[in-house]
UniProtKB/TrEMBL annotation:
Organism the protein comes from: Kribbella italica
Annotated ranges, domain NAD-dependent epimerase/dehydratase: 3-238
Family matches, as Pfam families: Epimerase (PF01370)
Keyword list, A-Z: Isomerase
BP-aspect Gene Ontology terms: galactose catabolic process via UDP-galactose, Leloir pathway
Name listed for the protein in its UniProt record: UDP-glucose 4-epimerase
RNA-binding found in the keyword field: no
Family designation: Belongs to the NAD(P)-dependent epimerase/dehydratase family.
UniProt-recorded Gene Ontology molecular function terms: isomerase activity
The keyword Magnesium belongs to this UniProt entry's keyword annotation: no
Pathway assigned to this chain's UniProt record: Carbohydrate metabolism; galactose metabolism
Amino acid sequence: MRVLVTGASGFVGYAVARRFAEVGHEVHGLTRRASGLPVGVERVDGDLLDEISVRKTVAQIEPEVVCHLAAVVRVRESRTDPVKYWRTNVGGTLALLDALAETRTPSKVILASTCAVYGEPARQPIREDARPEPSTPYGAGKLAADRAAADLAATGAIGAVSLRSFNVAGGLPGHPDRDESRLIPKVVAVAQGRAPELVVNGDGTTVRDYVHVLDMADAFLAAVGVCEPGTWQPYNVGSGRRTSIVDVIATTERLTGRPLTVRHQVAAAEPPELTADSTAFQQATGWSARRSGLDQIIADALEAGRSGDSPDGG
């Protein structure tokens, strides 16, 4: 299949492009960065905010599958610069959907969505029937992008699946996650001497659900099989494992054999727990989070941090 991956130089986008290329697909990676792409992925320079170039790219490639990962993704930053997040995450998605609406045959569109669309639900783990109530501009914009894809799918112009990922982590050799606004990359930076300390908001008991970036890449591949023209479906993608900040610190110290320098500060306003119920996606596709034990996630993040540099965004 001809596959277009947007954000192909980012942490998750790189892994997704690599996975599709590994199984023999013709993969085109859309990126505005000069950084490298996986072996077997053809670079397409472009920016989703340039509607003319997006339309031209889609017309030339005529993708059968589109994996849409290009985005800005820092939840806290979205509160201080909301227009940037709406412009990129919603405007860029609309430009892509507009181009796809003009193709001769419907594409299968797999969107990188997020658990942030749910806001802060009391019921955990979160299922797809939870009411979306995003509490940040990032989550609100991603929900708007989901709904735009759903509306276009209803016309028959595309099929669409939104993968609502939880906390993607881990790493690939030579391609770590350098975004130190996220917990595990920051812990790795401290462990490897690139940052002086880990600052923890509160007592470290906040719980998140971590899924390995390679499992997330497998999820994109699996989603193609359940994506049909004229339909849209959201799926939660996580490991289902409850992991606290304390757990991440303890596991890193055990794997490295060294204590981390940790400083606590006043707790931030954030959900006490976000964990996934991925049963629907597992039953629909046979996918499983087979690499998403905390030991492997952190070990692979540490190895990736030692083996090379990478971009820090999508």
